[in-house]
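Bit of a strange request maybe. I'm writing a small parser for C-alpha cell strings and I need a real example to test against, not something I typed by hand. Could someone generate the C-alpha cells for this chain?
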Amino acid sequence: MCEVLVVTERFWPEDFIINDLAAELAARGAGVTVLTQQPSYPQGRLFQGYRNRLLSRENWRGVRILRFRTVLGYRDSLPRKLCNYLWFALFGALVARFRLPRYDLVLIYQTGPLTMAVPGIVAAKARRKPVAIWTQDVWPDSVYAYGFRRTRLLARGLDAFVGWVYAKADAIMISCRGFSDILGRYTPKPLAYTPNWPLAPYRPAPVPARAPGVPVFLFAGNIGKVQNLENVLQGFARACRAEPGFARLRIVGDGSALDGLREQAAMAGVPVEFPGRRPAQDMGEEYDQADFLVLSLADEPVLRLTVPAKFQMYLSVGKPVLCAAGGEVSRQVRDGALGVVTDPRDPGDIARGFLAMRAAPPAQVAQWSANAAAALARDFDRNTIIGSIQQTLERLLGEGG
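Reply from user aminoacidic:
Good idea to test on real output. This should exercise your parser:
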C-alpha cells in the first residue's frame, strides 16, 4: 500500500465505518490522508472542542485529517442541508485540487448525497490517479425516497450526474447487493459487493445487566423519515392496548424525526423511552439491557434494496430482531431465522410482531440468537471485508488507474 486519499463527508469523531477502515489501512502500512469537513453530524452543530475554521489539520490513530468549514444548522432546515451538500462538493473540490499532499490513489466513501464524490474525482483526475468509490447510498433513487418529486427535468439532471460519477470511477464497491439493480443502469463496470461490518462489536457484560421482568425492545441509530418509526410506534401502541405492560420500547439516537416521535408517544400514552444519542463505544450498556432489537425502514423501492449498517451491528449483539422492513433486509432476517418479520406499512402487523416475540419460548429466543452469531461470522467478517477492499486498492495501483 502507498498513499491513500480518503474523501468522506463524515469522519471521526462522527461514528461511521470509514473511521475503522482508515485506521486499519494506516495500521497495515498505508499512508492515509482524509479530506472531510468539521464534525457536526447528526445534530447540525459542531462537536465540542472544534471550531468551524476554513481549514484545519489533525492526526488520529495514524491518519492525517484535513478538514474544512461546514454549513451548520442543517438538521432542521432543508435549504441549509442542500447548501451543505453543494458547499462540500464545490469547496471540497478546490481543497482537493490545490491543498492536498502527495497521494497515489483516491477512495471515496459515499454515504448520503453522491455530490460528495466530486472532490474525490477532481483530486484523482487532476493528478491522474485511480479512484475507487464505496457506495453506501444509491442515487438517484434515494433522492426520491426522501420526498423529492420525480420531474422530467430533475430525473434527466440526476441521471446525467450519476452516470458521470460512475464513469470517472476506476473501481466501484457496493455495500448492498441490491444496489447493482440500480447502478447497472448507469455503468457497465463490475460492482464489487463490499458490505459493512459492525462498527463497534458488542461485548456482553459478564453478568446480566438487567433483572428479569418486562422485556425491552431497542431501536438504535439515526431517527429520520426513512426509519419508519412512526409505524413502529403505532404498532407498539396497539400491542400495549392488547396486552398492557407487555414490554418497554427504547429508541436510542437522534435525528430530524425525534421531536415528532416524542409527541406521538406522549399522545398515545405508551412506555417509550428516548435517551438521546449515545457514542458507539457506550452502546454496550444499551445492548446489555435489551431483549429484542428493532430494525425498521420505510417501504420505498430503493430501501427495499438496502441493508442498513445497524443490521450488522445487531448481528454482533446476537439478540432477536423485530424487522419492520421489506426487501433485502427482511429476506436476510427471514432466511437466517433471526427473528420476526412484519409488514412495514401495517401497524397492526407490527403489533402482532411485538406480541409474538414477547410470547416466544426461551428455546426459540436462544435459537434466534445463535443464528445471528452464525450469520455474522459467515457474511460480515471484518478482516475478510477489509482485506477485499485492500486488494481492490492494490489492484488499482498495479493497473495505474
